[in-house]
Amino acid sequence: MKPVEAIASMGLSVSVAASILVMSLLTVQCLRRLYETYCLQVFAKSSKMNLSHYLAGIVHYFACITVAAGQAPLFCGNQNRESILWTDTRTKIFAVPCTLTFLWAWYEQYRSNIIFANLRKDKKSGQVVTEDHGIPRGRMFEYVSSPHRMCEVIIYTTLVLLLPTKTSV
Question: For FRET with 68, which of 13, 49, 154, 161 sits at 20 to 30 Å CA-CA?
Answer without folding.
Answer: 49
